[in-house]
Amino acid sequence: MRPRSRVAALTLSAALLLMVALGLAGCTSGDKATTSSASVASSSSPNSTTSTLASPATTGEVSTTATAPAALTGEKVELYAEIQRLREGMKSGTLVLDWYPPGITMGDLPSDPILFLDSLEQSLFNPDVTVYLMDAAGEAADLRSEIAAMPEVARLVFVSKHDALERLKEDFKDEPEILANLEGNPLPAVLEIWLKDYSKAASFADRLRGRPEVDEARTPGMDYGEWATRLRSLAHPPAPSGVTSTTG
User: Fold this and answer.
1) Is the entire prediction scored with pTM above 0.90?
2) Cα 75 from Cα 220, distance rounded (Å)
3) Closest by CA position to 64, among listed 44, 45, 91, 43
4) pLDDT tens string 92-103
5) What is the number of domains present in the chain?
């Protein structure tokens, strides 16, 4: 059985919590990070807080300006701009978003489109590659140094098993029943990696798979350009007074 099966074998609740804590939360300024510069190998502390990208992923804030942060490239810039256009349009009343046309949401997305836009924007700043480590790898200092020195890597963050579990406890402190049946700490340590060119994420993850320290390497697999097009198709000016829209 491949090592990656260990992640797949987590209980449903633990896997869901892992996704929330490591996939959706992004990295805030309080996370323990490892710089992605070549000097990382000589860093005196493997958990020093460092950042090389000025983005919501590193500051914990979400920009509402029309200009995309410098951390974004390619189709991420297009999607970011579309999100801001929709936000401003709905705020000013010049745009209406048809949020529940058949086949779009399938009941899996928030009923409030603003909440969805917030989540979609945050996803732009989430890691391009998430590497789940084998327990035997410990903090995988050598692997972390090797990855951080790669020229295509913009930033690397190490999340220990302990920190991953602490994230869960904090996220669900008001719903302790969710963690009630969690035995021990089933969460792996994680490397969160941001690339200078996110479109190379799949090939980068392939290079890491099979390493003895690596349990699994995942990429978002999200088509940012398609999402920008989809959002544009759902937005339109409000119907003239007295006219009822037939869409949605």
Assistant:
1) no
2) 14
3) 91
4) 999 988 876 444
5) 1
